[in-house]
Amino acid sequence: MVVYFRDPKGLRKFPNMSPLSGISNIPFMMLAHSGARSTQLVELHKKHPVIRTGPNTLSYGDARAIKDIYGHNTKCTKDTSYVITAGSHYHLADVIDKQDHSRKRKVLSAAYALKNLELWEHKVADKTTKLIRHFDQCCTAPLPAGSKIVPKDELTVDFRAWTNFFTLDAIADIGLSEPLGFLDQGNDHIVCKRPDGSEYECELRPALYQNARKQSLLVWPYQWYKLIDKVSNVIPFYGRMGQRAREWDGIPVELASRRWKRYQAGEKLDDFFQALMENKNGQAHALEWGEIVAEVSIMMNAGSVTTAIAMANVLLQLLKNPSVMAKLRAELDHAIDDDDEDPVVSYDTVKHLPYLRACLDESLRLFPPTPHNLPREVPSEGLSIMDDYISGGVSVGMSALVAHRNEAIFPQADKYVPERWLGEEGKNLQPYFLAFSAGARGCIGRNISYLEQTVLLASILRRYEFALPSPDWEIERLETMNWILGEMPVKVWRRQLSKLEP
Ligand code: HEM
Hints:
Layout: H1 2-6, H2 26-33, H3 37-45, E1 50-54, E2 57-60, H4 65-70, E3 77-78, H5 80-84, H6 98-112, H7 117-138, E4 157-158, H8 159-176, H9 182-185, E5 189-193, E6 199-203, H10 204-218, H11 225-231, H12 236-264, H13 272-277, H14 289-302, H15 305-320, H16 322-335, H17 347-350, H18 354-366, E7 376-377, E8 383-385, E9 388-390, E10 395-397, H19 400-404, H20 423-429, H21 446-463, E11 464-467, E12 477-479, E13 483-485, E14 489-494
Helix pairs in contact: 7-8, 7-21, 8-15, 10-12, 12-14, 15-18, 15-21
This protein binds protoporphyrin IX containing FE.
């Protein structure tokens, strides 16, 4: 209360998210428990461009703040939340120190570079073939014209789960040459080792998701987080999440160890791990083991969760907007050679299709997989944000969802309108597209994500028809650090294209 009234950082001039936000992070923790932080912030920012969401935290809703907070020349750094959730070593996404970040980014950018996409394409094609093999087995009879409700036993695919098996298998192969085999198994069971050498089996997705969920619920009072994280385990609701989080801890260690053994045995493999070990001239980077494990961890996490969400979202939007689906199919059918027997469409065929890209970007706009306010700390000397001085040490952030639902920039912001991304007008919107964040800390994996999204989506839309349980069916959404989706049961059947008939 004393600090609130002394107001050394001059934050009392900003409207509070809740009457208690100026003195406590509890209101924001409560908001986090609703599983819809960013959705709520969209509503609040309709009235206020800047909102105080905690004693030391500001949320921005005005697009002019994007450059100041995230732009290439910003003096802001990632804030303490990244430090307190980090493991023993930082990885590319949670390292704060600018020099250390540049060093890491340089090591990895060789692997993530656009020109390397051809290297990874066969790995993505292989996973697409496996997914198609499964979907072929799940095909049902066509939905009779006029039928709107699909009987339960005809909903043979959980599209959400399969896109996640796809991205996990893909990134394990691209990153570690590891055959995870989730698309073959039809589940995400993985066997790992504890530090004492004993084995345990777990499901990868719940382990990964519950870890992030617990953090997203409890992290907000930064100075208390470590304690709250431990103590909360006595409450079964959090205890179960804590147990899953411990299961996750063993997974990157196990995957890094498997790949390390192959490296030690002299195998030269085309993957990220190789780039982590040596530069192009064969000089060793000599990273510590903890850093290698941390990089494997973020690779498996950031490299799978978001793209899987994006792919489920885009199919959902297309099924809910049949005229958009028809237009996209027309573009794809025109571009894809009818005589091509391979059900997997090549990246070269689809990478420049404007409407396909517009459909993907519009879905990322409407439902950004990472809508979270990505918090940044104002440098000690303070900073001007939207021509307003903000004191050093304050955490500031802007949710991609808030940016994307701004009617002044994206008219009909709640509607799925891919056309807005076409031509010059579409280019002009790019500075307000925050799905991959922006600036020096923007996503390093976006090219890989587009490779996976374009190849998979083009291939399955060419081959199959899909139907949701009913036209007004809605998916469950839960905001943790990402915007996690519930199941997406769909009916699938082969498209009636003469060349596609077996
Ligand atoms: C639709 C897919 C994706 C979305 C929406 C997405 C979104 C983001 C966002 C918002 C950030 C900034 C995070 C922050 O500031 O804390 C980020 C960073 C990052 N992403 Fe992605 N991402 C996607 C795909 C990928 C893929 C496929 C990979 C890996 C293959 C990847 C790896 C990373 C890494 C390593 C960072 C940290 C970069 C740095 O700080 O230098 N992402 N991503």
